[in-house]
C-alpha cells in the first residue's frame, strides 16, 4: 500500500504537469484558486495534525526545528524564485543558471517533504496523520507542477527538456520517502526522534508556504471572494480529515 501511495504522489505531479503539454494551459486564476485551496489545507493539517504530533513525541526544543524549516524555505526561495507558491518568472536564454539553480532548490524542497512519508510504511507516526501529510503534499505539488511547466515553456525551454525536469521534480518526494525507508531499515536504536525533527522541519516549510499563499491578495475584489471560498473549503477539508 505504501508504494502505491508513493506512486500516486509521483503520478499526480506528472499528470498535472502533462496537462500543460497535451491539453491546454490552465488559467492563472484557476492556478491561484488551486494554490489557495492547497495552502489552506496545508495550514490546517500542519496545525491540527502534524504540530501536536511532533510536540507530543519530542521535547520543547522541537520548536527550533519548525523555525529552521520556516527560514530554510526563505533561503530556498532565493533560488527557486517562489515557484512553490505559484510565482512564475520568465527568463531568457542568457540566464545561464536557469533552470539549474531553480531545480536544485525545488528538488531539495520536495525531497525533504518526502522523508516523513516513510511513516506510511514504518508506522513511526499515526497512519491517518501520515495520509493527511501525503494528501497535503500531493495537493501542494499539483499547482507547483503547473507553475513549473508554465515557467519553463514561457522561458523558451524545449518541451523535451521541460518534461525531463518535470520527471525530476515528480521523483523527488518519493525518493525522499524511499531514502527514509532505507535509513529505517539500517538504523540502530529508535529513529522516532530523527523523524520528529525532520517532520518539524517540513512543518516549518509548510507554514511558510501556506501563509505566503494565504496572505497574498488581489486587487480584484470579486476574485478575493472566490479565493476566500477556496481557502474556507481547503481549511474545512483539513479539519474534517483530522478525524480520519
Word description of this protein:
It is built from nine helices and no strands. The protein is mainly α and 244 residues long. It has one domain (2-8, 28-83, 96-243). Helix 2 (28-56) packs parallel to helix 9 and helix 3 packs across helix 8 (192-215). The longest helix has 29 residues, at 28-56. The two termini are 17 Å apart. The model has no long low-confidence stretch (mean pLDDT 80).
Proportion of beta-strand residues: under 5%
Which stretches are poorly predicted, pLDDT < 50 over at least 5 residues?
none
Helix content: over 70%
Structural class: mainly alpha
Taking the sheet with the most strands, its summary is: none
- The radius of gyration computed from the alpha-carbon positions, rounded to a whole number of angstroms, is 18 Å
Termini distance? 17 Å
Number of helices: 9
Q: How many structural domains does the protein architecture include?
A: 1
Order of helices and strands: HHHHHHHHH
Count of β-strands: 0
| 3D shape | globular
Mean pLDDT across every amino acid position? 80
Brief rundown of the structure:
The chain has 244 residues and is mostly helical. It has helices spanning 2-22, 28-56, 62-80, 100-114, 119-122, 127-154, 159-186, 192-215, 221-240.
Tell me the layout of helices and strands:
Layout: H1 2-22, H2 28-56, H3 62-80, H4 100-114, H5 119-122, H6 127-154, H7 159-186, H8 192-215, H9 221-240
Helix pairs in contact: 1-6, 1-7, 2-6, 2-8, 2-9, 3-4, 3-8, 4-7, 6-7
Features:
244 residues, mainly alpha, 9 helices, 0% strand, globular
